[in-house]
């Protein structure tokens, strides 16, 4: 993050408190994640009228019935990807772009896909303004993944699917990690970590969560558009 301006420096006390009380106190250990989330101006990823709530312990609406993820969830999913700094990462569900910024601080290159154009364009605008250079955006159904850029060292899916899409597991590099929520809209979703090692695929449950649905070919069926 380079293009920092006066607006980005606001709320630094709330940001520090978010990291101490919501992340470090609940077991997020990776100092690079804590540092990144202390730096990134989360309030610039939500509408102006919600900026004063951006550091609270909750998700917030970002328009089009979508949400910016809860700070703890962003940190926990990033930690589960075990990033050292040089990885090629695929993110599905750009949303506000906040999680994308955290991934860009933690990895070598980030490819991010969002199905709603207006949401992707908003995220691109703020990430450009903050000076992130290593993010490549696409507006498409992310359940296809990004086969011509794969394989990926890490894949993060920010929307919940009926099951783990096997075509995405197939885009994981050897030693790769995938983190995603699985389960229905009514609650009871589980956060899963999937790894590929020596050709063996392993799935572990790492917590409970609540995400918007992953809509698309290998997720939930897209709602019919009104005629
Ligand atoms: N981590 C993001 C979460 C955004 S919510 C944040 O903190 O802002 C999940 C996003 O996934 C929504 O913007 C939604 O439009 C998007 N999404 C749902 N299904 C998708 C699909 N098949 N491909 C790409 N994006 C999808």
Structural class: alpha/beta
Number of helices: 7
**CATH top level class name:** Alpha Beta
Summarize the helix and strand pattern as letters: HHHEEHEHEHEEHEEE
Oligomer: single chain
Count of DSSP strands: 9
Radius of gyration: 16 Å
The CATH level-2 architecture is identified as 3-Layer(aba) Sandwich
What does this structure look like?
The chain has one domain: Vaccinia Virus protein VP39 (Rossmann fold), CATH 3.40.50.150. It has 227 residues and is α/β, with parallel strands linked by helices. The protein has helices at residues 6-9, 12-23, 31-39, 71-80, 98-106, 117-129, 166-169, and strands at 60-63, 66-68, 88-92, 109-114, 135-139, 152-157, 172-182, 189-197, 200-209. It contains 7 helices and 9 strands, in the order H-H-H-E-E-H-E-H-E-H-E-E-H-E-E-E. The strands form 2 sheets. A 7-stranded mixed β-sheet has the order 5-4-3-6-7-8-9. S-adenosyl-L-homocysteine (SAH) binds next to strand 2, helix 5 and strand 4. The site of S-adenosyl-L-homocysteine (SAH) has 25 residues, from strand 2, helix 5 and strand 4.
């Amino acid at each position: 993050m380079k293009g920092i301006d006066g607006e980005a420096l606001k709320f630094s006390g709330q940001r520090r408190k978010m990291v101490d009380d919501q992340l470090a106190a609940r077991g997020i250990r990776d100092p690079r994640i804590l540092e990144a989330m202390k730096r990134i101006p989360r309030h610039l990823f939500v509408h102006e009228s919600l900026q004063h709530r951006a550091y609270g312990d909750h998700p917030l609406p970002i328009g089009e019935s979508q949400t910016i993820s809860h700070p703890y969830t962003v940190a926990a999913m990033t930690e589960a990807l075990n990033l050292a700094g040089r990885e090629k990462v695929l993110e599905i569900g750009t949303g506000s772009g906040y999680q994308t910024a955290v991934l860009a601080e933690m990895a070598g290159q980030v490819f991010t896909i969002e199905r709603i154009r207006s949401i992707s364009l908003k995220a691109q605008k703020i990430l450009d303004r903050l000076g992130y250079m290593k993010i490549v955006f696409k507006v498409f159904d992310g359940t296809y993944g990004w086969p011509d850029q794969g394989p990926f060292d890490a894949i993060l899916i920010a929307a919940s699917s009926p099951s783990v899409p096997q075509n995405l597991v197939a885009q994981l590099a050897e030693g790769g990690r995938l983190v995603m929520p699985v389960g229905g809209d009514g609650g009871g979703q589980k956060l899963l970590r999937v790894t590929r090692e020596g050709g063996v695929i392993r799935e572990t449950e790492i917590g409970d969560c609540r995400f918007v649905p992953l809509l698309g070919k290998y997720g939930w069926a897209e709602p019919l558009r009104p005629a």
